[in-house]
Amino acid sequence: MSSATTLEKILVVLMLLTLIVSIATLSYIATLSTTISEIRSTEESIRASMEELARTLGERIEALEEVVKPKPIIMGTTDKITVLDPAKAYDFYTWEVFNNIGEGLLKYKPGTTELEPGIAESYDVSPDGRVYTFKLREGLKFTDGTDLDASAVKYSIERVMRLGLDPSWLVSAFVDAVEVVDTYTVRFILKKAVSYFPALVATPPYFPVSPNSYPSDAVAEPTVGHYGPYRIKSWVRDVELILESNPGYYGPPPKTSTFIVKFYKDASSLRLAVEMGEIDIAWRTLRPMDVQDLKSRGVLTVEEVPGPYIRYLVLRCKDAPFNDVRLRRAVAAAIDRKRIVEEVYRGTVQSLYSMIPAGMWSHIDAFKDEYGERDLALARSLLQEAGYSEAKPFEFELWYTPTHYGDLEADVAAVIKESLEETGMMKVTLRSAEWATYAAEYISAGVMPIFLLGWYPDYIDPDDYTTIFLHSEWSPDMGVFYSNPKMDELLDEASIRIDVEERTVLYIEIQKLMAEEAPVIPLFQGVLNVVFWPNVRGVILDPTMLLRYYLIYKE
Amino acid sequence: MLFSSIISSILRRLKFRRGVKYYFTFIGFAIVLSFVLMALLASFISPYNPVKRAGAPLESPSFKFPMGTDGLGRDILSRIIHGTRIVLRITLLSMTLSFLIGVPIGLLSGYLGGKLDSVISLFMDSLYAFPGLVLAIALAVMLGPGEISMGMSLTVVYIPTYFRMVRGEALSVKENLFVEAAKAIGAKDRTVMFKYILPNIIPSLPIILSLNAADAVLTAAALSFIGLGITAPTPDWGFDLRMGYPYLTSKIWWPSTFPGLMIVFLTLGFSLFGEGLTEILNPRLVRR
After folding, report:
1. What residues in B contact A431, CB-CB < 8 Å?
2. Do B232 and A411 touch (CB under 8 A)?
């Protein structure tokens, strides 16, 4: 008993002590705060003078550097080189590297989707559209010293077809055979007439590589054996890639002789690096919020163009509920694209009203023409027609995948749910699955009635944005299961015609039909952002999504 | 029977021991209790609907929105209040299941011994040796997203802790004279296990329960953070933390700070409670 009371006494004393101590600390802090503000102001003035000192010093050093050596351009990215072999690489960043260290028979004119001669000087198409004959430039050599001639082209194309890896279909689905006509003439015989074959030829799987550096039956990653404006000086995977100008290049030499690419692990460190001036250019991918921030600060230049990357909803058209076109149209009418663009992506993407992205020839705002920006009244009347009401709402599951498309995907799904439920006659349950399951199992098995998906093009042509989703032969692969003989006919016709104007008319018709039937609902289109210091020139963004390092220089 | 034995042992010991941790117990208990109340009364006390837009996106904390709004204009306070439900439900589910599975297996294994014991122990030890979060991630990927599957994956993670604890205690308790006596008068194995050994182990269990709960809150938040948890737009702390942190570089701190603080508080509550209970129920540890 007595011990207990002693303990209690001690406790009371302890509590009093803590009380006193805390009161003392608080009053001390109060007096401190005035001192702190004084310290701060002195600190500020010191910092200002230090900054001035640094600036003058920096200017001196810069002036010295200018005398001593030419400035390389340093670019940062969060992308990775997956595999340095055109027969295996099937991702945008690696393709970008190939476009700088390599070149196709044809290439895109920077800033456009027009093609111009590359390694080939000129080409002919046979009247039936099945035979393409390319005349190569003479006397070119790969960076390993091997001659770049017709047999090297034949070797490269056949190698891609033989290896049968991820991008091989881009060749093997179209090319039947490659023939060497003479040393500098090569002939492609196609399986069927394909009007966008020139666009295919401009993709890395068609790039010639040296037979002496790339073995014919295995994937390899040599740093020589390409032919393009730059050659690789050194490469440390996921750390750094140093390019230098290729003296044997036929065209004008790169504007900057040394171009360095630094690979960053995440968007935050990339942002810091460009802000601190560690790198001159920050390329894919900064977070939307960061881009907006940098833009508002005004120190760095932020450029954006519509990109070829699109996001959309897929509706499973083969069975209930979305075999009913009225329900598909109701969803299409109720979607609130503006909220996704403005709230989730803070204006760093743009609304998309067709599967063919804005900026590409033949694009029309088909869904906007059909449904307006958003038409809740139309959605409600369509739902009513289909037998639903407020009391008996249309209930369905909408799927998304939480990480593959970035951090914001869950928010996109949440906004879509909310906007559909604003009709008062839909009840949406969100479901999610990891990308591996989502892509490999659920999509083509038709597990998901309606789901979010994204598309990067393989070749820059409207065909790549339409046939795979809308043609009855391919659409089951994408989980659409859409089949309409009229659509098939239009798509087939458009892929054969060579004349761009004739094709445009066909693609416009295709887009109108697509908006009416709504088997897929386009949501938004990526905007490409590149952030760089104002003294950097020649950054040309175009819908191919590829940055051309050889046009960039510093002033 | 279980409850009365726990409570009576707590009460018995409270009279004698009043260390600093004695007060921790109550602070911890108060924190946990207030979260439980928050969860139960969520629909009454939350000012807005947690899954509907309430104001402009990313509004800073004000009288209208005490914790600000998130990227989609939803009230963060309401999301936090409703998020309590999810986290407590998952914790409760995983704790109950792992308790119900871990304790009997541990008792059986410890009491019976022999080959069965070594096989089960080996299995449980290998499970225990795995880092909890990694195991939970692997299971969550297999089971897919959702409250139940999150609860399940956490259950598997925490079964070994109960097993090891109960088995160890059973091994020492079964050597006691009263167990011999019970066997001598012909008591069945079942009776010995549940009437003689279990009551002697029970008082130690709330400690494990509470400490595991603290850990489970963190693991559940981590699962949600990496996108393996609840499906959007259900409010969930880990998920909200994830959606909020990209804004940090732009000096928008509220969407991630508040959910983060809540995770800290609830974990702290469970830990303090568990630590305090150790002091009260397991005086042997303290005297050492």
Report:
1. 145, 231
2. yes
Say yes or no for a CB contact (<8 Å) between A343 and B71: yes
Q: Nearest-CA residue of chain A relative to B233?
A: A414
Q: Which two tokens stand for residue B32?
A: 């946990």
Per CB-CB distance under 8 Å, the chain B contacts of A448 are none
Looking at the complex, does the CB of residue B249 fall below 8 Å from at least one CB of chain A?
A: yes
HSE value, Cβ hemisphere, 13 Å, CA-based, for A400: 27
The whole-angstrom separation of Cα A248 and Cα A142 is: 8
State the amino acid at position A228 in one-letter form.
Answer: G
Question: Would you mind telling me the total number of residues written for chain A in this entry?
Answer: 555
CATH of the domain at B55: 1.10.3720.10
User: Between β-strands A450-455 and A536-537, what pairing exists: parallel, antiparallel or unpaired?
Assistant: unpaired
Chain A interface, mutation test: which of B241, B250, B251, most A Cβ atoms within 10 Å? B250
Distance between CA atoms of residues A347 and A549, nearest Å: 27
pLDDT tens over chain A, length 555 residues: 445 567 777 777 887 887 788 787 777 777 777 777 777 888 888 888 888 888 888 877 777 665 555 689 999 998 888 889 999 888 778 999 999 999 999 998 887 778 899 999 999 999 888 999 999 999 899 999 999 999 999 999 999 999 988 888 889 889 999 999 999 999 999 998 888 898 889 989 999 999 999 999 999 999 999 999 999 999 998 899 999 999 999 989 998 999 999 999 888 889 989 998 899 999 877 887 788 888 888 889 998 877 788 999 999 999 889 999 999 999 999 999 999 998 888 888 899 999 999 888 889 999 999 999 999 999 999 999 999 999 999 999 999 988 778 778 889 999 999 999 999 999 999 998 888 788 878 888 889 999 999 988 877 788 989 998 999 988 998 899 999 999 999 999 998 887 778 889 999 999 999 999 999 999 999 888 899 999 998 888 776 778 899 999 988
Contact B246 A289 (CB under 8 A): yes
Q: How far is B279 from chain A (nearest CA, A)?
A: 16
A233 Cα to chain B: minimum distance (Å): 35
What is the domain count for chain B?
Answer: 1
- Give the Cα separation of B86 and B38 in Å (integer): 12
The residue ranges of DSSP E strands in A61-137, in sequence order, are 73-77, 106-108, 115-117, 120-125, 131-136
Range of the domain at B65: 2-287
